[in-house]
Design brief:
single chain; 229 residues; alpha/beta; 8 helices; 6 strands
């Protein structure tokens, strides 16, 4: 874990999110180990550096409360998907019982589903632009969150096009509260663009040109073309 974070710090990020990494078929597999990881990363980056913890649905309600309390003491910014995403009431219960911000919503496909999370007590939602209907869909999420005073921090692991579109929406937010998520450079798709999204000193620079500002590298695209008989 520490080696991975050290590598990411070379990019001078605005924040770092670490993730739960264990057997996802069982809850609460290694709570002590997870807390130890969180503590070790905090020691590595210092007290003031923004950190988040993504549980990937890995805990029961009780386990999530236990880990969340430790994250609060360690000064983590948010605690992502602590329980199974389809247990909306359980997610809301954890959010209401912890002081740390609990986030969810990356696996939500409808505006109504996002509203259910907010109604349950989740105060930071992370819909994905690809799952929520593209730019128009994510803008609807933005309006919903603004109306309910909820933080919108879009989930984003879609390479190049999806990520760039998500960044454009994030840039329109008034009073955005958290840094944008960045998927590691994709060898599959980044190579076919002249200017894929890449942060410099923790900041993305967006273009106002057509096509989200992305320029296609025709030569690289041709290398990957597959003829269909």
């Amino acid at each position: 874990m520490l080696r991975v974070v050290e590598t990411r710090l070379k990019d001078k990020p605005a924040a770092v999110k670490i993730r739960f990494d264990a057997d996802r078929t069982k809850a609460d597999v290694d709570i002590q180990g997870d807390i130890a990881k969180a503590r070790s990363v905090r020691k590595l980056v210092g007290d003031a550096f923004p950190l988040a913890f993504d549980a990937n649905n890995g805990y029961s309600v009780g386990g999530a409360i236990r880990v969340g309390r430790a994250l609060e003491e360690l000064g983590y910014w948010w605690f992502e998907e602590p329980v199974q995403h389809y247990h909306v009431k359980a997610m809301g219960e954890v959010a209401q019982r912890l002081d740390i911000t609990v986030s969810a919503g990356e696996q939500t496909y409808t505006l109504a589903g996002l509203a259910d999370l907010i109604g349950a007590g989740v105060r930071m939602v992370q819909p994905d632009i690809v799952k929520m209907g593209g730019i128009t869909g994510l803008m609807r999420c933005q309006a919903l969150c603004h109306a309910h005073g909820v933080e919108l921090v879009p989930h984003q692991t879609q390479p190049t096009i999806g990520h760039t579109a998500s960044l454009h929406i994030a840039a329109t937010q008034r009073g955005a509260t958290k840094p944008c998520e960045w998927n590691d450079p994709s060898s599959r798709t980044h190579a076919v663009f002249e200017n894929p999204p890449f942060p410099v000193d923790g900041l993305f620079t967006l273009s106002a040109d057509a096509g989200l500002g992305l320029s296609v590298n025709e030569a690289e695209l041709e290398k990957r073309r597959v003829a269909i008989a």
